[in-house]
Amino acid sequence: MITDVIEQQLQKENISLNEFQELLIRLLNYSILCREESQVEQQLYDRYLRIPGLVKEYLNMIDVRVLHDTRFEYIRLYPPSSHVPGMEEACETSFSGSLRSRLSQQEVALILVLRLQYDKALREAQVDDQGFVTESFEAINIAMKNIIGRTLPEKPAERRHLFNRCKKLRLIEYRHENDVLKSESWLKIHPMIVSFVNDEAIQALEESGLKESPSKELPPEDHSAQTTPSTATTSAIDEIE
């Protein structure tokens, strides 16, 4: 049986089947594993490093692919039919599951702005040693107005939800929940924003004239928030044109 084969491979690395299952369940539930996020994720990330081939082979059976960024030490899963940075396009398959989720218009807009702000900081050499970019919430709000023609939600609950969504996707970091309500507070943009929103999406945004026409709205998108935002974001922009 396949379980016996897997256990034989795991024994070589002194990893139990339960530990293997724990790693897979975490990846499939969250689709992202970031070593510096917590002690738990550090342990799971280090466990993955011992059996990357086995994890990839197992997930490949269900056409789920793995992106491993060794520099910034994170792992992201991509579902079937998704675009994976640095990999060939996947074949079209029918898929709908926990790896995919819906982003609202406001979430799409914020993520695009985060990517643009990250690029700006890169050009200005304002990136720290870990690849993070620090921005104030006020700067993000101003960028939203200038680039997308939107403002951050005024209602505290809505604003918290918006930024918490991006935080769960490991795109940003901030200390306290109420920081999002203070213009003088700061957040960090994670370097994985670059793989989350690809260059083609940014180019499409610029070519669409969205920056010069802030009255245009981003259409709602049913896209892979945790896995294939690059493709979905591009599709959203294409619909604007």
Describe the structure.
- The chain has 241 residues and is mainly alpha-helical.
- The chain folds into two domains: 2-78, no CATH class; 105-240, no CATH class.
- It contains ten helices and six strands; from the N terminus they run H-H-E-H-H-E-E-H-E-H-H-E-E-H-H-H.
- Strands 1-3-2 form a three-stranded antiparallel sheet. The chain has a three-stranded antiparallel sheet with strand order 4-6-5.
- A hairpin with a 4-residue loop joins strand 2 and strand 3 (74-78).
- Helix 2 (17-30) packs across helix 3, helix 5 (105-123) crosses helix 6 (137-148) and helix 5 packs across helix 7 (156-168).
- It starts with a helix and ends with a helix.
- Mean pLDDT is 80; it is low at 88-98 and 211-241.
Keywords summarizing the entry:
3-stranded antiparallel beta sheet; single chain; mainly alpha; 2 domains; 241 residues
Query: What general form does the structure show?
Result: elongated
Number of helix segments?
A: 10
Task: For the record, give the distance between the C-alpha atoms at the N and C termini, rounded to a whole number.
Answer: 53 Å
In total, how many domains does the architecture comprise?
A: 2
Gyration radius, rounded: 19 Å
Order of the strands making up the biggest sheet: 1-3-2
By DSSP, the count of extended strands is 6
Which structural class do the helices and strands define? mainly alpha
Strand content: 5-15%
| Low-confidence regions | 88-98, 211-241
The biggest beta sheet is recorded as: 3 strands, antiparallel
- Element string (H = helix, E = strand): HHEHHEEHEHHEEHHH
